[in-house]
Amino acid sequence: MIYIGGQNGVDATGKVVADDDAAAQAVRAVDNVEIALRAAGATLADVVAWTVLIAADADIAAAYGAIAPRLARAGAPPLVTAARVAGLAVPGALLEISAMAAVMNV
Description:
Elements: E1 2-7, H1 22-39, E2 47-55, H2 60-71, E3 79-85, E4 95-101
Parallel strand pairs: 2-3
Antiparallel strand pairs: 1-4, 2-4
Helix pairs in contact: 1-2
């Protein structure tokens, strides 16, 4: 099992991308999950569970719409848990995404 802790929509320097744009931040957060998975020898296709925390004032429909195709898997779709939160630890972040992947022989 590979666990990827909460990833925000931040660039390589840690700066939040696209202030007030939940969709753009969601795309970047999934990009960051994908980078971490690759480093561990896995891909998005290996993800069996996602957790998405989204700020109460963020546009959840836009965020989910931007990333839904990347969260889905052919065959057995992964578990997706989403929750609205009052705020996140990274100032300016509108969401945080975690993933759990199952890979044989890693």
